[in-house]
Write a sequence for this structure.
């Protein structure tokens, strides 16, 4: 019997000519990978209407898409099959803006590399909320990924303090303290592009130290060029 759940897409891997592995985060199932046809899952729906064509179906699998799905368990494989896919939110703010799309790719890559298997409903709920927050932001979001990294640490169980960050901060400790402050002030904290890149790298080092494995985030270079 199919099981209904909601997933956040983190990454995809094409398998042969006809299949796509979807690496995702689910509230009920945790971090998990699923398989579907490369052209889109059976019964795919977007905005309440059937998906049309390969490109329409592939739009479902963009990083951080939030989808309602039906999952069919396969007792012979860890890859369960997806059916009846529908987008929960249009996320027009993320898809229609180059900068937000880059932040979105960064967030998805960090989650893909940092989150391991196991159901953590609170982490899923926080992730979905953070996606909607970025989608809805009307002001500056150049610091969003920095504040998001700090909140991710808290969501994963190790809330950073200024003292915790000091060994990683080098000359940016005061800025990191500002990023830990009130939300609106953190987003408006004046930073150079160089400082943002270095702070992001330091926060990834902090996260890596707690996870006990190195996070190599390739999309960070893209953010460095944009912000």
């Amino acid at each position: 019997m199919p099981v209904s759940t909601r997933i956040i897409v983190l990454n995809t891997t094409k398998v042969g000519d006809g299949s796509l592995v979807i690496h995702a985060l689910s509230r009920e199932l945790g971090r998990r990978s699923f398989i579907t046809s490369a052209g889109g899952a059976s019964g795919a729906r977007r905005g309440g209407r059937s998906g049309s064509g390969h490109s329409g179906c592939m739009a479902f699998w963009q990083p951080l898409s939030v989808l309602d799905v039906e999952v069919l368990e396969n007792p012979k494989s860890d890859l369960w099959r997806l059916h009846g896919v529908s987008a929960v939110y249009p996320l027009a703010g993320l898809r229609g803006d180059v900068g937000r799309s880059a932040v979105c790719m960064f967030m998805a890559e960090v989650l893909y590399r940092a989150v391991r298997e196991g159901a953590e409903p609170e982490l899923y709920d926080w992730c979905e909320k953070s996606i909607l927050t970025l989608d809805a932001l009307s002001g500056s979001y150049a610091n969003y990924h920095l504040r998001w990294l700090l909140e991710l640490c808290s969501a994963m169980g190790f809330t950073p303090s200024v003292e915790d960050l000091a060994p990683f901060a080098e000359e940016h400790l005061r800025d990191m303290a500002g990023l830990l402050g009130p939300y609106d002030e953190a987003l408006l904290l004046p930073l150079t592009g160089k400082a943002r890149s270095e702070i992001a790298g330091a926060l990834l080092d902090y996260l890596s130290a707690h996870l006990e494995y190195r996070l190599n985030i390739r999309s960070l270079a893209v953010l460095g060029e944009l912000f």
